[in-house]
Specification:
alpha+beta; Uridine Diphospho-n-acetylenolpyruvylglucosamine Reductase, domain 2; Uridine Diphospho-n-acetylenolpyruvylglucosamine Reductase, domain 3; Alpha-Beta Plaits; 5 domains; 7-stranded antiparallel β-sheet; 5-stranded antiparallel β-sheet; 20 strands
């Protein structure tokens, strides 16, 4: 994996840059000793590591603004970092870039129940948002498996989802506004407590931008009232194909569950041993289907789901009888990633999205690819919206296994695109999928995307080396063919 060549002129100015950072933030907020830097040498994608140039931990928006302004004027690169739980290498440090950690932005600024929103700093964890409002009967809907640790700022950067994204949407559907510092130090506010603003959908651009456009210092999110009733149904099947067929049948019946997750044999066994969630161990595929809303509606929908399960030759079926049992069903799914870690020294967590109708076919192909590479794969994913998370098990100490796992993962992502899906669902592109962007986008597509980046960061100092396999200079992207002194489409206003 190639990263941009370090700027050695920047590296020679390290002492000067450290001194400048000390003039902006307190001394203990600048990390430059090698042993201390090692805590920041990777994110959740631990296969790739790089010791940071330096790490700076600002405490407020003004400090972020001063840091970015200095970096913009002096050509110093910036890598924004949240909690470091990302799984695509989006926060992978660079040898000549300041890693800007937002871990000190941990304050919930305002809870506004009347307008059903919360204003928070980006370092607040996902779960902490729900904990802050649950005593009033509210919660924050997006709930990634890492919600106990992942930060809201990171959720916005990667457009994270979670088990309840099927009904309540991803982060982009639950963010109302942001405060963001641009690369030149300007502080801008986009959106707020109101609904959709007129004009360009800049929030849509910022959500999922992976730290390429600016540094988010404040987020306004939507909170929801807890539903009157919520129950979960476990459905076990003899094959992954049967489980996939049940997913398609439930959605085809017009039922939109609060969440619908699927696990295969490896994941079921690992999760059950880890948390004793009450999963059956004699099934190949397990669905968790949650229905929420008014009690009468929930009971009606559970009946329909049970009927669909029987039509799909369900082998095991159980409905949660208490809130504690429902939470226990979900505890196994949310602990699936660490649980699978007990089966193998290492694993790669993939993230691709497919049309739901292709689920059975893709699961069959995953089995074939597993045999091809001689590596086991545990399937854990958001079945309701087709977001796959195959976990490729390998041992990095065995020669060639990491490379085989990477090739296996690349083939999975190519398969997603082949069947009409996309390279990523909620983990971002980062460095993991950067070199596969050409499988999904043409060169012109990527140039248009990079023009947006140029509007925010014309010097390409913000998180370089991520997302795009080839980064064009803004001047190159601005080239225009002029024939006989006449620009194309002369009727279009030029600025």
């Amino acid at each position: 994996m190639l990263m941009p060549e370090p700027d050695y002129e920047t590296i020679t100015r390290r002492d000067e840059i450290i001194a400048t950072m000390h003039s902006i933030v307190p001394a203990d907020c600048v990390i430059f000793e090698e042993d201390e830097l090692r805590a920041y040498d990777c994110d959740g994608l631990m296969a790739y590591k790089q010791l940071p140039f330096i790490v700076v931990l600002p405490e407020n928006t003004e400090q972020v603004s001063k840091i970015l302004k200095y970096c913009h004027e002096n050509g110093v690169k910036i890598v924004p970092r949240g909690a470091g739980t990302g799984l695509s290498g989006g926060a992978l440090p660079l040898a000549d870039a300041i890693t800007l950690g937002l871990g000190k932005f941990r304050e919930i600024i305002e809870t506004d129940y009347e307008n059903r929103c919360v204003v928070t700093q980006p370092g607040v964890t996902n779960l902490a948002l729900t904990q802050a409002v649950e005593h009033e009967g509210f919660y924050y809907a997006p709930d990634p498996s890492s919600q106990i640790a992942c930060s809201i700022g990171g959720n916005v950067a990667e457009n994270s989802g979670g088990v309840h994204c099927l009904k309540y949407g991803l982060t982009t559907n639950n963010v109302l506004g942001v405060e963001m510092v641009l690369m030149n130090g300007d502080i801008v506010r986009i959106g707020g407590k109101h609904l959709d603003a007129p004009g360009y959908d800049l929030l849509g651009v910022i959500n999922g931008s992976e730290g390429l456009l600016g540094v988010i210092t404040e987020v306004t999110v939507r909170i929801l009232q807890k539903p009157e009733t919520a129950k979960a149904v476990l459905l076990g099947f003899d094959s992954n194909e049967a489980g996939g067929g049940c997913v398609a049948a439930i959605i085809g019946a017009g039922i939109i569950p609060g969440g619908m997750e699927m696990m295969d044999t490896f994941a079921i066994q690992a999760a059950e041993e880890f948390v004793q969630a009450g999963y059956p161990l004699n099934v190949t595929s397990l669905l968790i289907v949650e229905l929420d809303g008014p009690a009468a509606e929930v009971e009606h929908l559970i009946g329909k789901v049970e009927a669909i399960g029987r039509q799909q030759n369900v082998k095991y079926m159980k409905v949660s009888e208490t809130e504690e049992e429902r939470q226990r069903f979900w505890s196994g799914r949310k602990a699936a990633f660490p649980a699978v870690g007990r089966l193998s020294p290492d694993y790669l967590c993939m993230d691709g999205t497919i049309p739901r109708g292709q689920l059975s076919y893709v699961l069959t192909r995953l089995g074939e690819l597993s045999e091809k590479y001689g590596l086991r794969v545990a399937n854990v994913f958001h079945a309701g919206d087709g977001n796959l998370h195959p976990l490729i098990l390998f041992d990095a100490n065995e020669p060639g296994e990491l490379e085989a796992a990477e090739k296996f993962g690349a083939d999975i992502l190519r398969l997603c695109v082949e069947v009409g899906g996309v390279l990523t669902g909620e983990h971002g592109v980062g460095v993991e999928k950067r070199d596969l962007m050409g499988e999904m986008f043409t060169e012109d597509d990527m140039k248009h995307q990079q023009r947006v980046k140029c509007a925010f960061d014309p010097r390409h100092l913000m998180n370089p080396g991520k997302v795009y396999p080839t980064l064009h200079r803004c001047a190159e992207l601005g080239k225009m063919h002029i024939h006989h002194g006449q620009v194309p489409f002369p009727d279009i206003p030029r600025f």
